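Because discrete structure vocabularies remain unfamiliar, we reproduce here a specimen of the format, pairing a chain with its fold in token form:
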Amino acid sequence: MKNQENNLLWINVNPALKIFDVPLLKQLSKTFTVNCWEYSQSTDEAQSLEDVLVLLHDYLKQGDRPVHLLGHGTGGLVALLYAYNYPERVKSLTLLSVGAYPAVDWQAHYYAQLRLLPCPRSILLKQTVYNLFGIQSPAAIYELRDRLEADLKTALPIHTICQNLSVSPRSVSVPLLVCGSDDDVVIDRKLQADWQPWLKTGDLLWQCPQGRYFFHYFYPQAVAEQISTFLNRGAQPITPLSSSKYCA
């Protein structure tokens, strides 16, 4: 039976990549009521991160109770900033592939590489596929490259070739779960470990042994189990769970 008290809101600002969220959301929907809030950037829009937070706030103001916010990558950044600004509307916060410097995402990594190694976009995106997904078949490489290229056009534009957005580490007053992957080259071990000084009693930092940047796509059941355990324990002090039993 679903827990109607625990309504989950998944934040997505990368519509071209939302296919990678589906397995995890299906797992979570077995236990919780899961809703999605999506933002897509059109070609002629000039929306900022602040504008997107306003849109999200307008949406959440329609509800009568706090929600559990979840997000991956840039969606996690939006969820984090919202929880920081409006903690009264957030019951808990779950971040996936979000480091202590939360604006770092796959696009920041891509543009940093582009500045160091000027080359055609298609070549660099192909290398980025290897970084994000590991070894893939030739057909999968082209499909994933096209998805990444589409994301550069339609995602919330917080990074460019000229400048990457930087957001300093910060704590939030709501219960926090941070999930990452040991073999992620974008949100590496240092960016994940840098969360430690910002965690409160009851917060949890969990790492999947593998899966890279989209570990929640490759191991949705293991990630869903971590999220469910965290939400069911609420804000009470918890003992960090070992990642060694998962994603083997």
